[in-house]
Structures are given as C-alpha cells and as structure tokens.
Amino acid sequence: MTDSVNSSISIHQPTEFWLGVEQFNQRNYYACHDTLEAIWIDAKVSEQGFYQGILQIAVGFYHLGNLNWRGSAILLGEGSHRLDAYGDVHGGINVTDLATQSLDWLTALQATGPDQIQQLASVLSGLPLASEPYRLASGETLIPPTIHLA
Length: 150
Fold this sequence. Notes:
By secondary structure, this protein is mainly alpha-helical. 58% of the residues lie in helices and 3% in strands.
C-alpha cells in the first residue's frame, strides 16, 4: 500500500464509524453501508475515499450474500483498491488486512465463477459446507472477513 494519505492511527473517528465497524464484523453489511455512507457524505475530501472504500467492501459482501456475483466482484475490487491510498493503518483500523481479505474473497469469486457463488455465500454466512472448506492459493482457509483494529 502506498502512503500518499496520512496513515497515522486516528482513533478520533465519529461514534458512528465504530458502529459501522461493529456492523461489518457482525456481517450486517447493509447496515454498515448505511452507517458509513452518512459519515462519507459529510467527511473531509481527504477522508472520503477511506469511508467509501470500506462501505464498498461492505456492499460487495452484501451482494455476495445475495448471490450477486458481478456486483460482489466489482465492489470488492473497487473498495480494496480505494483503500490503497491510506497506508497500512488508518482511522484506527488495519487497512492492509481489510484490503487483503477483500482481495482474497475477490480471488475466490473469480476462481469459482458465478455458478458456484452459493458455496462462497455459505462461507460468508459462517455456515458449514457439505464439502471441503474453500482454500486460498496460499493454503489458508477462506473465512468471513473482519475489520481489525490497529
């Protein structure tokens, strides 16, 4: 990730931001989108991409849960790339980790294709699969995403 925007830890986020993080981590992606969108609209221009990146990732996972392969793939990619400008850590969260998780899911979507989206939606929801767990090229098991604090 580049360091073109201030990447210092800023725990001075609006209360609603932390609510959005909690909603994301509880897999309530649509509510997370609504919460962060309200912050994004009023944010400083330098911070808008940060909030927009996270909410795009949330909407990408929302689409995945609704078996919308194309919408999920587009928004996971756009959201993770939008976060590139914010360094490893920004706004009190581990941005690199969130972007990496998003790209892992995007890679899994691309590898499985639209016909197998149900398998990934099951992983996202935390439901056990009838088959083997989905493994990334690294050998790690794909798990539901989590925003980690910095």
